[in-house]
Design goal:
The structure is a single chain. About 30% of the residues are buried. The protein has a 5-stranded parallel β-sheet with strand order 2-1-3-4-5, with helices on both faces. A 5-stranded parallel β-sheet has the order 7-8-11-6-12, covered by helices on one side. A two-stranded antiparallel sheet has the order 9-10. Helix content is about 50%, strand content about 10%. By secondary structure, the chain is of the alpha/beta class.
Length: about 475
Amino acid sequence: MNDAKSMGNTDSQDGVKPVILVVDDEETIRFCLQEALAVEGYKVHTEDNGENSLKLIKKIIPDLVMLDLKMPGMNGLDLLKEIKSYDQNILVILLTGHASVDSAVNAMKAGAFDYLEKPFKMEHIKVVIERALSTQSLMREVSRLREKANIACSGDIVAVSKEMKKVFEHVKIIAQSPSSTVLIQGESGTGKELIANYVHMMSARNKYRFMEVNCAALTENLLEAELFGYEKGSFTGASTTGKAGLFEATQRGTMFLDEIGEMSLPLQAKLLRVLQERKFKRVGGIDDINVDVRIVASTNRDLEEEVKKGTFRKDLFYRLRVLPVYLCALRERKDDIIPLVKHYIHTFNKEFHKNINNIPPEVEGALRNYDWPGNVRELKNVVERAVLLSNNSMLSAEHLLLGSETATTESGSGEDTDQSIATVEKLHITEVLKETSWRMTKASKILGINRTTLYNKIKHYDIKQ
């Protein structure tokens, strides 16, 4: 589903238009604005009073609210304050036929983006709206970057438990050293990539690039070419001009080598040279290239055991392990479970336009007592699914499907996992079809599939109207 709050200037990245709410007790004003803005492609809602507007705002989360200053009941200034209290990112433009310097000043102090006097020209309104949405797009980008830089408070890794508080205190110190290598160890799904990004953003290198490379995702030859680049004609398929590698592209920044335990021994030797001498050669090249890049590596393997087995170089291990970080499993920091659940409920409430605000004690107990073999990644997936399938304000135990994330590992086959995924997909499609009154075009758009695929899935799952 699409989240109205993710929208930008005129079109969001997924092509959805911004949502505008018009609040005015004059029917003519509501009608004129709705007609004019709909022609521009905006999705427009209207309300004639403040009380109903607040209820609608919490449901649709508009990008912009245009509201009359003088209305029966809750006036525009009071509604503005309520809106800003609920969500600072919602922009508000006040409209009034009773303009005064005092009211304008009060409106701007309360957080109004602009203040327009009736009667207004529609072309002027459109210009102000475009300017407002452009400003909002910039504000959201700044907010995104700030959240990225302050990842310890973002909720994706919650530092509520004493275990995680200790980790973050350690990481804050590590981040101050801009050149020393860092090795992050922990089970899959514990958030190693977030810690790596935090180290980068809190270091003196944060003005430069953070490059993430999954060492397990590429073959040895492809990984070598990606990391170090290659000269023209160095191998079959090499371009006629050669290509710079990721180390060159990350100059003065941070290179995050995820799953470094999967790297082959020959590549380990080349990486060791980068760490020791700060230089390397491209594939097929003869000239040394100097590089200034901080290495942060991660693995879910026991590298000391890999060293003993001869599959990982001892000298590289100690070079990487200058500043070690160990992330404990979620089952070892249970105080973080419910705060994480609440964070993800908040996130997915916005994404799916839900309003879950209650976790029953028995559900909370089940979440705390579950072993979470997939760690935070599994928890996020479980909450996303539960929020998506919910039809009320309560997180339901029947939607948690605890254990389905790791059914393949435990059963030795994908049968249980396939079955749980199919169950979730069928429920999701059924719910969307009901919400859209079986309007196939709208349902397929929400689901992110075409109409033919939707028809096939309805037939496959035997979904009845």
